[in-house]
Structure formats: structure tokens, C-alpha cells
């Protein structure tokens, strides 16, 4: 069911409505913790068949990158916490990760929609280097080398202010929430935390992290209140 749903670009909420169950129940079905009832299997079979007949093109459930929004989020982060001694490149990677995945879990839609891969020290956005190079070239940020304790550190400081017109209140609230929870963590602390989150745990080395795994997070990281079964 999960593979078919993802292939057709159908959300878990839609499946829940079709079956007349809660979304957490759909999650349990997809994890193999609860079997489909015969009538539910029949309902889904008919729905999937009709859906394919009525849609000539298949929607692909892949996050769409919003690079301009990424730049504004990065400038906002740097403006707020970039001067903190612990905020180097590694911590930035994880702050971006938690912003994107927390937002997706809570609202089932993308904020920046970056592609993160499983690196040794936690999730890394694939788009980061290219965007950083562009922003240095356009003099939006400045890169400096420093030391944090005994470790070499790459820091970025904002030269321009973020265009907040490109970020709505809901997005800014999520960014602030992530900064409140994680911006004081060291690179080691926040890396170890990201290793306990489901998207990183289930991915293979250097493989892209799946946003859908945000719905299977442990309570430590979950930001959404799911309805009771």
C-alpha cells in the first residue's frame, strides 16, 4: 500500500479519509503493525484503479527545492545565531535539516525542500555548497575560518538581511522553534541527536533521506500531535 500510495503521490491523510480511519492507523498499516481488513483492501484496490484511470500523468512525491527560500532561511539563521561560537558549518547542516523535516512532519508540505543525504556526522543538504558559493559571489554572506575549542571551524556571517516577505508566519515560527531547541548545541551534540532521528537511521550511507520517514520519528523529535487511536 505504501509503495502504491507514494508512486501515485497520495498522502496518508487521503488514505485515512478513504478508509474512514485515523492517519496514525494508516501509519501502523504501512509499518506492518496492523493488517488491512478485507473490506479496506477492496476499497483501496478500487480507489487506486480509478485514480490511475483519471490521471494521465502520475504525481511524483518528491520534494521540490526552493533555493531562493533556502537563501532567506540561511540569512535569517545567520542573522539570529550565526555569531554564536558553536554555529559552524556542521551545526548549520543540522539546523536546516530539522527545519525542513520538522516542517514537513507538522504540515505535510515543504519549506525549503532541500535534499539531504546520510553522511558520517549526520544529514547534509546536497545543495549547500553551490548555494554558499553563489551567496559569497553575490556578497550576501562572508565565509571565515575559526577555531571552536581545538577544532577547525567554517563560519558564515550575513552581509545582507533576509527578505522576510518570502517567509510566512508559519515558516518563521518553525525556524524560531528549531533555533530555540538546537542553536546552542555543539556540532557533536546536534550530530548525535540527528543520528537518533528516524530519517537518518533508516537510510544507507550517502543515500538521500526520505521526508516520509518524518512521520515515524521517536517522541524525542516529533513535533506533531497525532490524534489518538
Write the layout of secondary structure elements.
Layout: H1 2-8, H2 12-19, H3 23-30, H4 38-54, H5 67-81, H6 89-107, E1 116-119, E2 122-125, H7 128-137, E3 141-148, E4 151-158, H8 169-182, H9 187-195, H10 198-202
Describe this structure in words.
Helix content is 49%, strand content 10%. The protein has 229 residues and is mainly α. The strands form 2 sheets. Strands 1-2 form a two-stranded antiparallel ribbon. The chain has a two-stranded antiparallel ribbon with strand order 3-4. The chain is elongated.
Radius of gyration: 20 Å
State the major sheet.
2 strands, antiparallel
Low-confidence stretches: 56-61
Distance between the termini: 20 Å
Name the average pLDDT: 89
Number of helices: 10
Shape: elongated
Q: What structural class do you assign from the helix and strand content?
A: mainly alpha
Give the neighbour order of strands across the main sheet: 1-2
What's the assembly state of these chains?
A: single chain
What share of the residues lie within helices?
Answer: 40-55%
| DSSP summary, beta strand count | 4
What portion of residues belong to β-strands?
5-15%
Order of helices and strands: HHHHHHEEHEEHHH
Number of domains: 2
Amino acid at each position: 500500500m505504501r509503495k502504491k500510495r507514494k508512486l501515485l503521490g497520495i498522502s496518508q491523510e487521503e488514505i485515512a479519509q478513504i478508509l474512514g480511519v485515523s492517519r496514525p492507523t494508516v501509519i501502523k498499516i504501512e509499518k506492518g503493525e496492523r493488517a488491512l481488513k478485507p473490506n479496506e483492501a477492496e476499497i483501496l484496490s478500487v480507489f487506486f484503479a480509478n485514480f490511475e484511470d483519471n490521471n494521465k500523468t502520475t504525481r511524483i512525491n518528491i520534494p521540490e527545492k526552493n533555493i531562493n527560500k533556502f537563501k532567506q532561511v540561511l540569512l535569517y539563521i545567520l542573522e539570529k545565531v550565526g555569531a554564536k561560537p558553536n554555529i559552524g558549518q556542521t551545526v548549520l547542516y543540522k539546523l536546516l535539516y530539522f527545519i525542513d523535516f520538522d516542517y514537513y512532519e507538522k504540515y505535510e508540505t515543504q519549506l525549503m525542500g532541500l535534499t539531504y543525504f546520510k553522511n558520517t556526522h549526520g544529514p547534509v543538504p546536497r545543495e549547500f555548497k553551490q548555494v554558499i558559493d553563489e551567496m559569497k559571489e553575490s556578497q550576501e554572506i562572508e565565509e571565515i575560518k575559526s577555531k571552536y575549542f581545538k577544532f577547525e571551524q567554517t563560519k558564515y556571517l550575513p552581509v545582507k538581511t533576509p527578505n522576510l516577505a518570502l517567509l510566512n508566519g508559519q515558516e518563521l515560527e518553525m525556524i524560531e522553534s528549531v533555533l530555540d531547541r538546537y542553536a546552542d548545541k555543539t556540532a557533536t551534540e546536534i550530530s548525535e541527536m540527528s543520528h537518533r532521528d528516524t530519517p537518518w537511521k533508516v537510510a544507507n550511507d550517502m543515500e538521500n533521506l526520505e521526508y516520509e520517514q518524518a512521520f515515524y520519528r521517536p517522541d524525542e523529535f516529533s513535533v506533531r500531535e497525532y490524534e489518538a487511536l
